[in-house]
Amino acid sequence: MKFFKNLMNDEQGATAIEYGLIAALIAVAAITAMQGLGNQLTNTFSNVSTTMAV
């Protein structure tokens, strides 16, 4: 019974899960920012290509 009491009071697993969730949120934010930057770069290179072709 003591094992189960110790298991219920152990918070190391919860801390690891919290760190994993934080890392996932940071990854989602980074991916979103990079997609926006990629779209802007695509537009910039398209404009440069169009200007050079004229």
In short:
By secondary structure, the protein is an all-alpha fold. The protein has helices at residues 2-9, 12-53. InterPro entries: Flp_Fap.
Could you explain how this protein is built, in words?
The chain is mostly helical. It has one domain. Helix content is 93%, strand content 0%. It has two helices and no strands. The chain is rod-shaped. The termini are far apart. The mean pLDDT is 87.
Write the layout of secondary structure elements.
Layout: H1 2-9, H2 12-53
Protein name: Flp family type IVb pilin
Organism: Parerythrobacter jejuensis
Transmembrane segments: 21-38
Strand content: under 5%
Q: What share of the residues lie within helices?
A: over 70%
> Number of DSSP helices?
2
Query: Given the C-alpha coordinates, what overall shape results?
Result: rod-shaped
Instruction: Give the topology string: H per helix, E per strand.
Output: HH
Structural class: mainly alpha
Largest sheet: none
Number of strands: 0
- How many structural domains does the protein architecture include? 1
Oligomer: single chain
Low-confidence regions: none
Rg value: 24 Å
Distance between the termini: 81 Å
Could you tell me the mean pLDDT? 87
Structural features:
mainly alpha, 54 residues, Flp_Fap, transmembrane helix
